[in-house]
Design brief:
Elements lengths: L4 E2 L5 E2 L2 H15 L18 E3 L2 E4 L2 E2 L2 E5 L3 H5 L5 H13 L4 E5 L10 E3 L2 E2 L1 H17 L2 E5 L9 H11 L15 H15 L16 E5 L13 H17 L4 E3 L12 H4 L13 H5 L7 E5 L1 H4 L5 H23 L3 E6 L10 H20 L4 E6 L22 H18 L9 H6 L7
Parallel strand pairs: 6-7, 6-15, 7-10, 10-11, 11-12, 13-14, 14-15
Antiparallel strand pairs: 1-2, 3-4, 4-5, 8-9
Helix pairs in contact: 1-13, 3-4, 6-7, 11-12, 12-13
EC number: 3.2.1.78
Protein name: mannan endo-1,4-beta-mannosidase
InterPro entries: GH, Glyco_hydro_5, MAN-like
Length: 443
């Protein structure tokens, strides 16, 4: 039996007997997760709002313990994939998780939502309807991303290809996504179609559905052809204003990785390395527009540093997070969420306990912010899956209930956040059961 030692934050040592008890608890809780039957459960949910540096629901502070499952819509296209979405959402509810970040885009790819500019596949749209309806079933909210900076699922490169093929494109560079007038029209039409979509299952337009936590403009934007950042900034301001003109009920973020730009004094003291200031982005400037409600940051220390030790990486993580929370509190006056964080299992000498230390470091920083009612609004692990999804996994993905220690860390975070500010998301009767378990109690 492996003996796990946690050293992040204030640190603790998990006794072997405690580990065995958690294993038994996790097995009893999740052993039958894929066989859970479908049920109807009409949960009343309120919109998440922003009050200065905090998220609020019905007047109560709301700190997020969330995760990424980008694959929801793609899997929901076919009936045989839908039990996986249901299983993941119900498992997340059993852990008390509150928000899932997932893709609301698939441009010109297999199971495409947008087949060509302005042409949508109704079957795929119904898959997204299903995802939203299923989230409502268990009282979990969704943060929906609208396009990818990367090539996966089409991304900005696909938009450029469409414009180039139709003879209206200004440039074959995929950064022309941000400045080409024709492509901006493509994207605006796409956004309007999604926001005004009437869910075929619930009958609610997306822009009127409180199950949606908020919108993300673009996953990990970079515009390296304009290192000044002006091109991306202009796009953010135009698109965020456009979205708010259609939907002023939902929160909106950019989708940034959190790099400081060339004019920021933090580019040399906080950025991972010199290259981060040359990506055409700037965390402060990009997050500042009035239509942007909260800032987003990603955390991938092993992608950003090849030679640091685990201790060095975790030290950077804490500094990275504290810096951005400070920006939210003192400069932006907005919440900051860490919408992706992950540690690769391809690192030399990797052991699962290292990932647990990393998770605990992230959770502890959020918890400390929550205790002070600070701007650190929550975190989203990248990524969670269910069994049998090996082909969709990357070197960061986990099935959380297969690791007793990881499960305990996640549920402890749920409970200690709830202990400070109460539970505002209607998780279906599981919170008391989770937090009363002696191996989850946080003191």
């Amino acid at each position: 039996m492996v003996k796990y030692k946690m050293t992040g934050g204030n640190g603790y040592l998990l006794p072997i007997l405690g580990f065995a008890s958690i294993v038994a608890f996790v097995y009893l809780s999740f052993g039958d997760i894929l066989s859970v039957k479908y049920y109807k459960n009409d949960i009343d949910m309120s919109f998440v709002e922003r009050n200065g540096t905090n998220f609020v629901v019905d007047g109560k502070l709301f700190y997020i313990n969330g995760w990424n499952s980008y694959w929801f819509m793609d899997h929901a296209v076919n009936d045989h994939g839908r039990p996986r979405i249901r299983a993941m959402l119900q498992a997340a509810a059993k852990m008390g998780l509150t928000v899932c970040r997932t893709w609301a885009f698939n441009d010109g790819d297999y199971n495409a939502l947008q087949v060509t500019p302005g042409q949508f596949d109704e079957n795929t749209f119904k898959a997204l309807d299903f995802v939203i309806a299923e989230a409502r079933e268990v009282g979990i909210r969704l943060m929906l991303s609208l396009v990818n900076n990367l090539d996966a699922y089409g991304g900005k490169t696909q938009y450029v290809k469409w414009a180039w093929t139709e003879g209206v494109g200004m440039s074959p560079s995929n950064d022309s996504f941000f400045y080409d007038p024709s492509i901006r029209i493509y994207f605006k039409n796409y956004v309007k179609t999604v926001l005004t979509r009437k869910n075929t299952i619930t009958g609610i337009q997306y822009r009127d559905d409180p199950v949606i936590f908020g919108w993300e403009l673009i996953n990990e934007p970079r515009c390296i052809t304009d290192r000044s950042g002006d091109t991306l900034q202009d796009w953010i301001e135009e698109m965020s204003t456009f979205i708010k003109s259609i939907d002023n009920k939902h929160l909106l973020t950019v989708g940034l990785e959190g790099f400081y730009g060339p004019n920021s004094p933090k580019r040399e003291t906080v950025n991972p390395e010199f290259w981060a200031a040359d990506m055409g982005v700037d965390f402060i400037r990009n997050s500042a527009p009035a239509a942007i409600d909260f800032a987003s940051v990603h955390i991938y220390p092993d992608h950003w540093f090849k030679k640091k030790s685990l201790k060095g990486k975790l030290k950077f993580v804490a500094k990275w997070m504290h810096s951005h929370i400070e920006d939210g509190d003192q400069v932006l006056n907005k919440p900051v969420v860490f919408s992706e964080f992950g540690l690769s299992d391809l690192n030399k000498g990797f052991d699962p306990s290292q990932r647990d230390e990393f998770y605990k470091t992230v959770f502890d920083v959020i918890y400390e912010s929550a205790k002070k009612k600070g701007a650190g609004g929550g975190s989203f692990a990248w990524q969670f899956l269910v069994e049998g999804m090996e082909e969709f996994n990357d070197d960061f993905g986990i099935v959380p209930w297969k690791s007793a220690v990881t499960y305990m860390l996640i549920t402890q975070q749920t409970c200690r956040l709830a202990k400070i500010h109460g539970a505002v998301t209607p998780i279906t009767g599981n919170l008391n059961n989770i937090c009363n378990d002696k191996w989850v109690k946080t003191g």
